[in-house]
């Protein structure tokens, strides 16, 4: 018999962290987990649009989604209640941050210099990547207070910060590859 997807354990408004601690669903840990899940979904959508265009960076987006699972594991393991075994299992290293920086540098070298504020645009792939970037910034804003409170690894916040930069550069790259114009901010006449 297949296991049921529903457990009913959250019906009273509480959920469990990886450490087994029960917290209200409105706890900032679950806010950060939700934002990270939304980010992975947004990146999945951007990846589907980009896959239709045959972009090779789709493999990188899939790798990012896998890393976001590790981000979630770290967030779901509040350091205040984590045993050493929990911490070891959900630690987050600097290596994925450095990898993002390499990707950013590689795509940036191929782009024209920025001369104006770019509005989310440039075709479906680009717009979806810009949307992912905005969701990433929200996820980062949810994670930073956890890091500041000593509940999550600082590398998690750094990863999200770098990821938003990567998504921005990738959105510009996709627009360039498709020959789509990036719309720029124009100050309205008074």
Keywords:
single chain, 190 residues, mainly alpha, Hypothetical Protein Ta1238, Chain: A, two-stranded antiparallel ribbon, 3% strand
Which CATH class of the domain at 24-75 and 119-189 applies here?
A: Mainly Alpha
Q: For the largest beta sheet, what order do the strands appear in spatially?
A: 1-2
Helix content: 55-70%
Distance between the termini: 67 Å
The SS-based structural class is mainly alpha
Q: Which residues form runs of ≥5 with pLDDT under 50?
A: none
CATH superfamily of the domain at 24-75 and 119-189: Cobalamin adenosyltransferase-like
How confident overall, as mean pLDDT? 89
User: What is the CATH architecture annotation of the domain at 24-75 and 119-189?
Assistant: Up-down Bundle
General form: elongated
Beta-strand percentage range: under 5%
What is the chain-wise order of helices and strands? EEHHHHHH
Let me know the number of strands. 2
Largest sheet: 2 strands, antiparallel
At CATH level 3, the topology of the domain at 24-75 and 119-189 is Hypothetical Protein Ta1238, Chain: A
Total helical segments: 6
- What is the CA-atom radius of gyration, in angstroms? 19 Å
What does the model show?
With 190 residues, the chain is mainly alpha-helical. It has a domain at 24-75 and 119-189: Cobalamin adenosyltransferase-like (Hypothetical Protein Ta1238, Chain: A). Helix content is 60%, strand content 3%. A two-stranded antiparallel ribbon has the order 1-2. A hairpin with a 5-residue loop joins strand 1 and strand 2. Helix 1 (28-52) packs antiparallel against helix 5 (124-148) and helix 5 (124-148) runs antiparallel to helix 6. The longest helix is centred in the N-terminal third of the chain and has 25 residues, at 28-52. The radius of gyration is 19 Å and the shape is elongated.
